[in-house]
Design goal:
CATH superfamily of the largest domain in chain C: MetI-like
Number of strands of chain C: 2
Order of helices and strands of chain A: EEEHEEHEHHHHEHEHEEHHEE
CATH topology of chain A: Rossmann fold
Largest sheet of chain C: 2 strands, antiparallel
CATH architecture of the largest domain in chain C: Orthogonal Bundle
Strand content of chain A: 15-25%
Number of domains of chain A: 1
Radius of gyration of chain A: 21 Å
CATH architecture of chain A: 3-Layer(aba) Sandwich
Chains: A alpha/beta (about 325), B alpha/beta (about 300), C mainly alpha (about 325)
Largest interface: A-B, 42 and 40 residues
Order of helices and strands of chain C: HHHHEEHHHHHHHHHH
Distance between the termini of chain A: 51 Å
Helix content of chain C: over 70%
CATH superfamily of chain A: P-loop containing nucleotide triphosphate hydrolases
Number of strands of chain A: 12
Helix content of chain A: 25-40%
Structural class of chain A: alpha/beta
CATH class of chain A: Alpha Beta
Oligomer: heterotrimer
Distance between the termini of chain C: 5 Å
Chain lengths: ~325, ~300, ~325
Amino acid sequence: MGNQPLLQLKNLRTSFRIQDDYFAAVDDVSLTVNENEVVAIVGESGCGKSALALSIMGLHQEGRTKLEGNVNFNGRNLLSLSTGEMNKVRGKDIGMIFQDPLTALNPLMTCGKQIEESMTYHTSFTGGEKKERALELLKSVGIPNPGRTYKQYPHELSGGMRQRVVIAVAIACNPSIVIADEPTTALDVTIQAQIMDLLKELQKKNETGIILITHDLGVVAEMADRVAVMYAGEIVELADVHTLFENPLHPYTRSLLNSIPSTTDEKERLHVIQGVVPSLKNLPRKGCRFKNRIEWMDDHEHEENPVLREVEPDHFVRCTCYKNFHFPEEK
Amino acid sequence: MVFLKINNLKVYYPIRGGFFRRVVDHVKAVDDISFELKQGETYGLVGESGCGKTTTGRSIIGLTKSTAGEIIFEDKDLTKLSRKDYHNYRRDIQMIFQDPYSSLNPRKRVLDIVAEPLRNFEKLTIAEERQKVQFYIEKVGLSPEDVYKYPHEFSGGQRQRIGIARALTLNPKLIIADEPVSALDVSVQAQVLNFMQDIQKEFNLTYLFISHDLGIIQHMCDRIGIMYRGQFVEEGAAEDIYTNPQHIYTKRLISAIPDINPKNRDKQVEFRKKVNEEYKNSYDKYFNAEGKVYKLKQISNTHSVALP
Amino acid sequence: MLKFILRRILIMIPQLIILSVLIFALAKAMPGDALTGQLASSPKMDAQTLHELKQKLGMLDPPYVQYFRWLKGLLHGDMGMSIIHQTPVTQLLAGRMENTILLSAAVLILSYLIAIPLGIVSGRWTDSWADKMVVGYNYITFATPLFIFALLMLFIFGFVLGWFPTSGSVDIRVENGTFSYFMSKVNHLILPAFSGAIISTTVTIQYLRTEIIDTKIKDFVKTARAKGVSESNVYTRHILRNSFLPIAAFLGYDIVSLIGGSVFLESIYGYPGIGQLFITSIAQRDFSVVTALVMISGLATLVGTLLSDIILSAVDPRIRIE
């Protein structure tokens, strides 16, 4: 495969039907994921990050969603595959981890059976081989007693243990890409740390490409190699993780970082982003989408048709408003 | 005068079992905790889900009945007051809930939601009531006309501020904030936290701030109590807890906070490994034979730890 | 599990005792009695003989004496004599019970056979034309009272078309035990069973439809799809199993309500079951029959709820009873 990216999104647009019109929740997103790389997609609720994850997997409700652009994987555009063809990719080449371990597992099926299920579709394993592999997986995700958990139902496990089972389900067939949608959000802090460490360990071992969807910049800082910041359906900044945290450029990225109650400089006032996230229907479709949340900036600072531009090697920023951006309290 | 002092508070729930559903054991949601709040400070109650922090908050405000112990508010033990006397104290303690989506009745106007405590405690004319509600609605940064709207017309952050306005109408002295920003996005969270600090100064409020998020607790709180399985493992000024944690559980919690600087990530993993090792190796030092923590012991003027 | 069932059965005892007191009191409070009605029709009966007869039958004893006599009999499986039919109540019920159970079972099975496919189609392909038709069908069956629908069916298929018999449970001319006897039974059953079944599909369809709609957007269904599970298996293995839970839970109650619901069906179709007997016995003040029937349906309700709990715990591991 060489330097060929594992997964390549090109001008992906996902639109949802509201009444009789389609509104893009993911708008013109281009992104690559390489082998053995963790790409984080970070943003607040409604920015389109989860819609993006479901678009790659083709899991949106049919008839209500319109997908445009390309999702290139293994020389094919996943968006053009039929459901039957897509089913051969899901679970085998791309695995998915969902946010809430409480609801992500079927309550009526034992954990073992749920892990084995994808093997039924993607391998020619016999029953015994499947069980062996399931036990091995349970062990590798840090379940203390695999034999017992294999036979247990999801409700018999704690939240952290359940999320481990969810991970085992996702990596059962050794996918080359795992999409993790807020994998630690529903968990307690100490469990969150354990799951983060586990994901990193598995990723290194299997050289998996991970798309990490999260709203938590702390999780991003600990896990990601590259970061895409999304606002209102668009990527507004894309850079490697060190660049992004040391030299954030887009006003939205900078605002976000300033609004975290950080553990280092306590008691200072947090930055508040003015206004609210526009709803899908009322999203400004022209010009800089962040414009009305930084109203103190002059109109001419913005581009008329903002594009994601490479401003330094491998550092992409949308719109020109970042150049002279300052926080209102700074002037 | 003592502002709020909790003495040996216990909240037990019976477990029934056997053929006749007799009480065979208890779930000790809150198991013998004591702490004190001074007027004007923000006290943080931290712990993971199921540690009893929410139950503690709910029993102080009377939403959960305590099994034993004293809740002394302004020199009166709330657990021993008659219903009528209790009612009078109840207005001085208000609560802000976690979920701004489910804690506001969707069928009521903002005016009715915010006025509810007023209607319970004060007899005001309709005009007076509206004036008062509008005063507080403006205080929380919404416009006076908003009182005629319904909750769904507001964003999550605005709803949480409506919840705060409701808590403020009776001019309370103590506000119990149970995970007030956990359901909110980071930028909205910042807005609510800033705002809570502003009104604290303006109305001389005391906060009991319940949260699982140590970053937010550090940002907001003067003193912190760490809870584990219904008991306190450590208590101290924010600085004591974050720079000099003594109990292994506190260390685990702190090591679990994701570091916002990506440069530290390997260090952070190492740190967590080290703490986990210590947790495994020196378990006996911190927990007794029943897996319970020891009683709190003072190790400095401001700092106590549960050690044998 | 065994302990759970045993405990539930023990709890039933006081419930049944309270029920028996209530039933007995209500029955005694009903105006009139079985014998007074016969006074006018029989010339031999005068006030004197009536009084003697009542004395003989213990009808003039204080109520509590009557109650304990009745209870004692009940415990021995003796439900007393039917004054109208002049036969022991147990004997009277035996044959009719069989008919009612047969009818109820037929209604239940037919109802599920119709409702489950319709519910699945309508839940799986929401907003399709098929779904709209099912929903329309549901409105109609929901709005139509059973007794009107049954009368209509009886009129069309029984009288106008003459396809099915219009009353009874079997042709009295055929010999018991032969094949034609069986066919005659089935033939008598079809019309009442279909009428009952069609009207009772509403709840099952509605439940199944909303359950499927709720379940198909759940996270674990997304997980299943993300594993590459084929669309048909997503339904059979994940969505439907979860959607059937409430229906399985209602099975116990359904059985009970059907026995109650048979009152209409049996009256309209002249089908000799306990429902029909119940109506006539109330009209004739045949207390021993009425109390026996209410007692039986009370017991059936308790057993039905227990049955529902057992079924639910068998299909849902989350509420498995230890």
